[in-house]
Here is the input.
Amino acid sequence: MRELLRFRAVVWTASVPGTLLVGAVALGLGRIIPAQPEIALAIAGAILVLGITAAEPAVIPLLAVPLLLVGHRVGAGSVNVSVSDAALLMATVVALVFTTRPLSPVLRNLLWLSALPTSSPPCSRWWRTRSWRTPWNGSTRG
Here is the structure.
């Protein structure tokens, strides 16, 4: 009986703030929609993505695959990335956050290796010596 009461207390403690949060978001969206529909649409899209991710985490990375072929540039100011870069970043973050733990040692080493910055001096020196210039595009190997 004691465990049942503890479970009910945990459920009540989790559901009341969640209900209040959903109500606050709904009221905020209702107030924002007439004045700024773009922002309200973005917030509603973010909520939809979070709901889909909670139901099936593999859907978001799969939906990002067609966007990897789009080369259109987006950004404002000094931030200028392609749609494919943004989609790949989003899919990678979702996949890493919702992956099953613990990761295998090989995958963990691969993730750490991919996190190394390519602009560090050893990597950039290696990249400069192995350029993509070829004889058929008019440039010579330097």
